[in-house]
Amino acid sequence: MGLRKGGFRLFGEPITSVDDDMELGVAVLQSKGATIAIIGCDLGSATREESHEFRDTVADILKIDRAHVLFNLSHNHSAATLRGNNGSPINEEDLPLINEYQNSLIDKIAQCTRSALANMKDARMAHAWGAADLNVYRREWNNGQDILGEVIGHPVDDSVGVIRFDDLNGKAIVTFFRFSCHPVVNGAVSTTLSADFPGPARKLVEEKVGGIGIFLQGCGGNVNPKVGIGYEKDCSESVYRVGTALGAEVVRIALGLNTHRFQGERTTLNNVPNILFKPWSARTDHPELTLAGAEEVVKFRFSPLPDESHLRTQEAHWRKEIEDRIARGALSWEIRAAKTTYAWVAATLARLSDPNPTDDFLAHALRIGDIALVGLGVEAFFQTGEEIRAKSPMPETFVLGYSNGTIMYLPRKEDFPPGGWKHPNAHALPDLLPQVYCQPALWHPDSEQEAVAAALRALGRVASV
Predict the structure, then answer these.
(1) Helices 48-62 + 95-118 axis angle, to 10
(2) In this structure, what DSSP letter does residue 370 have?
(3) Which stretches of the chain drop beneath a pLDDT of 50?
């Protein structure tokens, strides 16, 4: 209770009650002398440095390289903010509570890892894909502006990917399920803690399939739930509906996967000539799988930064705006937005001395047999994930955003308006994204294709193992 949520203007705070516990899952896989780990959690965002600390916690326990540990966030907007807060300022009075929470989180990551290691079982794996008509394209062109809205009928990635690990008797150990969508069903007015739609989805999977369910967020940077961002004080019904619908599709897919038995060729039933069926036989093989991990770092360039004179004017404006908003008792989001913008101005002024500023983008690939997981350290658009999957050298690829630290949105070159985005900002999204992530400007338009190339290089490295 009392922790604040992320977000620039949206999302009620501080947290006053709990709708649904948030969860953390760690899966450890060992085969052929190699070990990898996958962390999935209901957090909203984490900086690259925070993510390194989480991954290193796991890597140290397992005595493996950090490149063998993937950390994926659901990007849940109803989660508590961590210390880094994407580089934006946090209230000093909140620090003790945040520190307590974050230290507890690290302890839980370590606890989960040790528990997973202590309970290793021989396992087999299977995977399949389905679809859920639950998300909508959210970048709407309205009255000459690119707004956060919805475009009915626009293509989206509605795929649902499932990877199921069972013991040798076919009993589920862990089920991963991937979907691309912003978890914002529990919306702007609600002050409740919620896992959003992945919560009820996971509960249904664990109830009907068994074992542990771990949600993996895909490339949902330009995708919202079809129900929109909840504007009710109590969004729990919508959260339950969306989550249960997603969970039902995951259950359908997962229950169609058989790891411990297979169907043979069709034959007659008790020698009755006109009744044919495929008898089930038990699997006796237990092949080991190739496990591998690889990282590729690209130094992303920025679009042109605002000039110093504009920033100096903005610095004075937002300093006074903070004072005025506090004095008049403005809403908490109004004060937070002013402080965030002021912090962005100060950080951008500090970077003007660098003629070519960059930031590190991380593309991460994990191999599990014929399957690859790709983690992108950005809010990736769904088209980026689809391109990487289509060009991957691996037989099957699950592309994830929000992995190993999120450094900002990553629009494609074709998503930029003619002439690029300009300063001063005209409207909320995506122009204000540098402020939200405390980056000096949006990425250079070529950055998205550089990210695709980096992901494919990482995939090529694990494919060649």
Answers:
(1) 30
(2) T
(3) 426-428
Torsion region of 66: left, alpha or beta (phi above 0 gives left; psi -120 to 50 gives alpha): alpha
Can you list the positions of beta strands (E) in 180-326? Answer: 192-193, 212-217, 223-225, 261-263, 267-269, 272-277, 280-282, 291-301
CA distance 99 to 373: 31
CB-CB contact of 276 with 426 (8 Å): no
> What's the CA gap between 338 and 324, in Å, rounded?
10
- Bridge partners (DSSP) listed for residue 141: 146
Which residues share a beta bridge with 172?
A: 166
Q: How many Cβ atoms sit within 10 Å of the Cβ of residue 386?
A: 17
- End-to-end Cα, the chain, rounded Å: 47
CA 103 vs CA 28, 95, 97: distances in Å:
22, 12, 10
Q: What is the pLDDT of residue 225?
A: 97
- Give the per-residue pLDDT at 197: 98
CB atoms within 10 A of CB 314: 21
- The DSSP 8-state label assigned to residue 414 in this structure reads G
Q: How far apart are CA 18 and CA 228, in angstroms?
A: 21
Q: What letter does residue 14 receive in the DSSP assignment? A: S
Crossing angle (nearest 10°) for helices 447-463 and 382-391: 40
Q: To 10 degrees, what angle do helices 332-351 and 308-327 make?
A: 160
Give 117-177 as a DSSP string. HHT---EEEEEEEEE---EEEEEEEETTEEEEEEETT-----EEEEEEEEETTS-EEEEEE
**38: number of Cβ within 10 Å:** 25
Distance CA 12, CA 227 (A): 18
- Encoded tokens for 256: 């169609």
Tokens, residue 139: 């970048």
Rounded Cα gap, residues 18 and 29, in angstroms: 33
**Which residue type is seen at 369?**
G
For residue 417, count CB atoms less than 10 angstroms from its CB and return exposed for 0-12, middle for 13-18, buried for 19 or more: middle
Residue 101, phi-psi category: left (phi > 0), alpha (psi -120 to 50), beta (remainder): alpha
Dist. CA 333–CA 336, nearest whole Å: 5
Structure tokens of 246? 């997603």
Can you tell me the distance from the alpha carbon of 328 to that of 345, in angstroms, rounded to the nearest whole number? 23
Q: How far is CA 143 from CA 54, 139, 146, 153, 264, in A?
A: 44, 13, 8, 19, 60
Residue 6 confidence (pLDDT): 74
Q: Which of 297, 460, 449 is nearest to 372 (CA)?
A: 460
